[in-house]
Amino acid sequence: MTKIKDITALLEQLAPLRYQESYDNAGLQTGDANAEVSGVLVTLDCTEEVLEEALAKGCNLVVAHHPVIFKGLKQLTGRSYVERTIIKAIQNNIAIYASHTNLDNVLHGVNTKIADKLGLRQQRILVTKPSTLMQLVTFVPVEQTDGVLAALHKAGAGNIGEYSACSFSVTGTGRFTPSEQANPAIGSANQAEQVQENRLELLFPAVLQGRIMAALKEAHPYEEVAHYLYNLENQNQEVGIGMIGELEQELSEEAFLSYLKEKMKLQGLRYTSIGNQKVKRVAVCGGAGSFLIKDALRQGADALVTGDVKYHEFFDAEGQLMIADIGHYESEVYTKEIFYDVISKSFPNFAVLISEVNTNPVRYTF
Ligand SMILES: [Zn+2]
């Protein structure tokens, strides 16, 4: 039996809720986490129409990118589409889960999807997030070092970029005196003890702290495990916003515009001209990404592909950057594929459906 919480736990492995921005409201919005899943419908937005689709297709979990409850709700009377959506979900026992800015801020999230659609190479996060890494220092008897290290690595400590099982150690002397009440693995009450120990140092993502400390306590032979935890200011190359990469071949402005329209299936877009400058390095940010214009310029991007750019923000391109506003919906609609791929890969015998509703409230006329 698959429970709603099994699916949300899987999504949070990809995009931990801790990575969401402070203003956000990602997570389970309605429903019982312990209910059995009958089917999952993935969507960009959860609207009443999407709930109708979920009901028709026998799905009791809707996974969306945008949280339908974003600001606080003070009543549930059905006066707004948000209230009506929530009422409908509750009346029909449909759980709604949102993976929002946390999915914008991870390596295999919203922005990698756009970068992949555009065929960008040498992809990396445009602005990495500080304060998401920690360091563990602990002391282990020499003979038990390998076992403790193996447990820590299994829990996710010591991965740096493309390198796994990373650690540093130095051997020294540990000293302690057990009390009458202690139950020491080595030594006896009131007798000073000296043991050859390794000082181990490992990096890990702060979101894994609970899991890693549990693994340490489980694997370590001592009753009291001496350790230090440090918050690090290091940039985490796997967490942050936007993505930057290079096109296989540089393109003229005109050719890049056609390429964008084809790859992102656009009817049209708004952009700033870079004249005869070629487009090779491209930054992307799903949704509203104009706050990244300066970072894109600083990192030598020729184009920034995003949505929701305001008139005055286009001026910040300074004629050096093609700001391509392809639309909020158009930039993020393929996020559905991320949800679909992740869930259907882990639950292959389970109905995971991509919503067919076009939730874009914006229509175009030319
Ligand atoms: Zn968005």
TrEMBL record:
InterPro entries for this protein: DUF34/NIF3, DUF34/NIF3_bac, DUF34/NIF3_sf, N-reg_PII/ATP_PRibTrfase_C
Molecular function per GO: metal ion binding
Q: What domain of life is recorded for the organism? A: Bacteria
Q: Which Pfam families match?
A: DUF34_NIF3
Question: Which Gene3D superfamilies does this one have?
Answer: 3.30.70.120, NIF3 (NGG1p interacting factor 3)-like
Q: Name one GO cellular component term.
A: cytoplasm
**Keywords in UniProt for this one?**
Metal-binding
Q: Where does a divalent metal cation bind?
A: 65-66, 104, 328, 332
Q: How does it assemble?
A: Homohexamer.
Q: What family is this protein classified in?
A: Belongs to the GTP cyclohydrolase I type 2/NIF3 family.
Protein's UniProt name: GTP cyclohydrolase 1 type 2 homolog
Q: Lineage from the top down? A: Bacteria, Pseudomonadati, Bacteroidota, Cytophagia, Cytophagales
